[in-house]
Design goal:
mainly alpha, 0% strand
Length: 90
């Protein structure tokens, strides 16, 4: 499952890297500035269609946004697993 908060962060980071204002992205996608803010803050779930609209407006593949939303959580789990493997029993 994709973490909506992490997806929002990925969208926000991609928007900032593209030097696009939130209001401008919202306009390109056809939603309100407030709704775009809610998406970026992970307050709401978005459809695949909406994700595709956002990714097209940002000129970045939706898959990249999804990977960025999934990778940090996986990395935390991998670090925790690594720590457990490196501990010796008492």
């Amino acid at each position: 499952m994709i973490d909506k908060h992490m997806l929002g962060i990925a969208i926000k980071n991609a928007r900032r890297e593209s030097h696009i204002l939130s209001a401008d992205l919202a306009s390109k996608v056809g939603i309100s500035r407030g709704h775009m803010s809610d998406i970026e803050m992970g307050k709401c779930c978005i459809t695949v269609e909406r994700l595709n609209q956002i990714s097209e407006a940002l000129e970045i593949p939706a898959e990249i946004l999804i990977l960025q939303a999934v990778t940090p959580k996986k990395s935390r789990h991998m670090r925790a697993l690594s720590m457990l493997e490196n501990t010796s029993p008492d």
